[in-house]
Amino acid sequence: IAGNPVLFNENGDSPGRYEIYQYQIRNRTAEYKVIGNWTDQLHLNVRSMQWPGGVRQIPFSICSHPCQPGERKKIVKGIPCCWHCERCDGYQYQADTFTCKMCRFDLRPNENHTGCVPIPIVKLEWSSPWAVIPVLIAVLGIMATLFVVVTFIRYNDTPIVKASGRELSYVLLTGIFLCYATTFLMISTPDVGICSLRRIFLGLGMSISYAALLTKTNRIYRIFEQGSMSVSAPRFISPASQLVITFTLTSVQLLGVCIWFGVDPSKAIIDYEDQRTSNPALARGVLKCDISDLSLICLLGYSMLLMVTCTVYAIKTRGVPETFNEAKPIGFTMYTTCIIWLAFIPIFFGTSQSTEKVR
């Protein structure tokens, strides 16, 4: 009747004929408008179609957009052809389409997290204020120490220099010089040699200084203690004996360092944990000597023992006559030193790890 032939497909069904409508709003009036038809195949009038927002361009008909670099595909459960894009965050990088992996401990992800790059290595630079200020103080201290040494040498045979105990005074000045000179080792770029010298001289200067002061105060104490009981002079109060006692006390420090070298040889390491921040871009590796906080305190422990012992003798000799003027300045020095050490230890362990915390 319509003039169309009657046809059947292989299933015995007649082919379908459909008109395709789209719900559109024109001039605030909603209506269904024919935009195409189906007769054996699809015929669409794209120009007559409308999309939300008045857009004429056909929207993408896809389940998921391709993931950007540094993002992995996370398949939607039950819909294997659809996925969510999940960014590789922190220290992760995109290993493949579906996997994020952690970078090695000495690496960090690049800017788009598609691979790993080496973490920058930092150390205490000579131009840093944390280095410049200690170096200036050390230079001033060395100059003052050398000035005193030159003065002592020039007036070596005068009664004042003799009365001060020339031999122990020179030993004490040597210890003070080493304490100041160690500053340059602490700022130098760590390597096996520098780290070895740090172990030797970090505690040696203080050990020499405290050993000399301890020998002085012990000598004063024994003189007045013996004087209250007998008219005979105590033993080992000659300058040679005082030097032997001082060097014997100092040798204990050197022996401990030698044992330490045998048990754990010096080496420079790169510590990636001290400055491993949550933001990989700020992560840094710190080049430093392999000396732990506990090892450092143990290294200085013998000096602290000498200091405490010297303080005890300084307290015992606080009642010496005013004319015997060595004991009281030594006592005052040891009291203030104890206070400084009591403040140093909690501050040292309480500060965060950084390149400015010199090992």
TrEMBL record:
Transmembrane intervals:
130-156, 168-187, 199-215, 294-315, 327-349
Report domain G-protein coupled receptors family 3 profile positions.
Answer: 130-359
**Bilayer topology term:** Multi-pass membrane protein
The protein's UniProt keywords, in alphabetical order, are:
Cell membrane, G-protein coupled receptor, Glycoprotein, Membrane, Receptor, Transducer, Transmembrane, Transmembrane helix
Q: Where in the cell is it found?
A: Cell membrane
Q: Under what name is this protein listed? A: Metabotropic glutamate receptor 4
Question: What species is this protein from?
Answer: Ilyodon furcidens
Organismal lineage = Eukaryota, Metazoa, Chordata, Craniata, Vertebrata
List the gene name: GRM4_2
